[in-house]
Specification:
single chain, mainly alpha, D-Maltodextrin-Binding Protein, domain 2, 3 domains, 3-stranded parallel β-sheet, 8 helices, elongated
């Protein structure tokens, strides 16, 4: 109904409009509807395209790789209920690349530092995907009430929350800043009324201005009409 009213008014002459201000409002309304329809079409196309480009997790984890010598083999077997006979142990990022490129494995499970190291070297063709599992790791134990606890915790936070950690990764692990070629795009956000608030404010302001101009012009015309005396 919103689209059909101005279209029928302009092209099918269902109602003749004489006021120029009304025509301006209808033209701007048609333009706003056209913009909204185009934005929804583009957003829908982006959703469909990103859904096809998003990697799919393998249906079975019988044929995946893991870091040789780590606890990940037992973790995969327990979490995904696989036999473990076809799990492939890998020792270096070069073996990761060869196994993935030749199709020997569908995916690789590893700890985040090693995954980041792999992506720093071959990130243009691969990406990390899937949930990050929090597992128990290395920790430091202090006696209850130890004065070293606060100082130690503060020192760890100062390193992990500053640029020192990135500099250490670059220096000792060969990390580099991603060049943007890796596909880590976020899905487009949903559209609602707030997305078009600017258009609605504009068309509302234009409508109010058209009403004011129309009233002024009508009063001006009425003031020129002289009563006819008989």
């Amino acid at each position: 109904m919103v689209i059909w009213f101005p279209v029928s008014t302009f092209f099918f002459h269902e109602g003749k409009i004489l006021n120029k201000n009304t025509k301006v409002v209808l033209v701007m309304w048609l333009s706003m509807i056209f913009i909204i329809v185009q934005i929804f079409t583009a957003t829908l196309s982006a959703w469909l395209t990103l859904d096809q480009m998003r990697p799919k997790l393998p249906s079975s984890y019988e044929n995946v790789g893991y870091q040789d010598g780590s606890f990940l083999k037992d973790f995969i077997i327990q979490k995904y209920n696989c036999s473990g006979t076809n799990l492939l142990p890998l020792k270096s990022v070069e073996e990761y690349k060869n196994a993935l490129s030749t199709g020997r494995v569908n995916a690789i499970f590893d700890e985040l530092p090693y995954i980041e190291l792999f992506l720093a070297k071959y990130g243009s063709n691969y990406m990390k995907f899937g949930p990050i599992n929090q597992e128990s790791g290395i920790a430091f134990a202090f006696a209850r009430g130890s004065p070293l606890l606060q100082n130690f915790s503060r020192a760890v936070i100062n390193v992990t929350e500053s640029d020192i950690m990135m500099e250490m990764k670059k220096k000792y692990l060969g990390f580099r800043v991603p060049d943007g070629s890796q596909s880590n795009q976020a899905p487009p956000q949903s559209l609602d009324v707030q997305s078009f608030i600017g258009l609605f404010i504009f068309i509302g302001t234009l409508t109010i201005a058209a009403i004011i101009c129309s009233e002024i012009s009508l009063r001006h015309v009425n003031s020129k009409i002289q009563p006819i005396s008989i």
